[in-house]
Amino acid sequence: MDAAHLTEIRAREPGRIERSWQKRSRRPLTGEDGRLLIVAADHPARGALGARGDESAMASRSALLDRLATALSRPGVDGVLGTPDLLDDLLLMGALEDRVAIGSMNRGGLQGASFEFDDRFTAYTTEAIAAQGLEGGKTLTRICLEDAGTAATLQATAEAVTSLAEHSLMAMIEPFLTVREEGRARNLLDPDSVMRSIHIASGLGASSAYTWLKLPVVDELERVLDATTLPTLLLGGDPQGDPHDTYASWATAMSLPATRGLVAGRALLYPPDGDVAAAVDIAAGIVHGSTT
Predict the structure, then answer these.
(1) Nearest by Cα to 122 from 48, 25, 197, 46
(2) Distance from the CA of 23 to the CA of which of 17, 40, 128, 252 falls in 20 to 30 A?
(3) CATH assignment of the domain containing 229
(4) Using one digit for the tens of pLDDT, what is the confidence trace for 244-256?
(5) Could you read off the pLDDT of 117-175 as tens digits, one per residue?
(6) Is this model's pTM higher than 0.85 or not?
(7) Within 10 Å of residue 155's Cβ, how many Cβ atoms?
(8) How many domains in the chain?
(9) Whole domain around residue 127: which residue ranges?
(10) Which of 89, 157, 86, 150 is nearest to 115 (CA)?
């Protein structure tokens, strides 16, 4: 289904989206091996369109949807993380059948904004996630000790974790200790800073029963992951170097028993050679082993 057809449905049959969510074929959150490979595509809603040095790489919605459809068609890919506009498109395309769908919740901390750390929940709500039958919700939780906007983000994240747990839905928290330098946010990726962010995030909400963490691959990862008993998914990020080095770092990290999978977007959707299927297949092999 091309972009023009999607627009036609949205204009003439908007109720088809809700009906399609109710009819979607669902699957358990995790398979037999207990691991997940999730393709992430919630960056554009925060105004972050860049990938591998191209600041407008994700600007074309039709091209992004084509790449996502390719990724979701590959064996070993469990699902996708996105905002409502994008997941609704994929739903109409039939790409979410028997796939995990995770709704991105807070996208209000626009990239480069003065209010970036007061990261408002402007996308999915827990009620919408539950009503539409998504498998969980995700929050970006950046913690800047010098920005008072962090307090509102922490409170809203805690409320989201609590409400998702009340519906027995995954709450995926992506925490970072962050600083602002020359008007831009920079995540602190040294082991001790990541560990500190883990402890802060782990304590959010009235229940941790359904909380998962999404964490970057950093040095001393085994020591870092000893900071939590929560299921942990690794963050693919936006690597700039040789993709083989990226794959090697993922493989090393996935060998640790605490890791439960990978959430990767730009690294898989915009590989240097443009071959999305090949990049996704390598990631699936790292996460699940052989998928053939």
Answers:
(1) 46
(2) 40
(3) 3.20.20.70
(4) 999 999 999 999 9
(5) 999 999 999 999 999 999 999 999 999 999 999 999 999 999 999 999 999 999 999 99
(6) yes
(7) 11
(8) 1
(9) 3-288
(10) 150
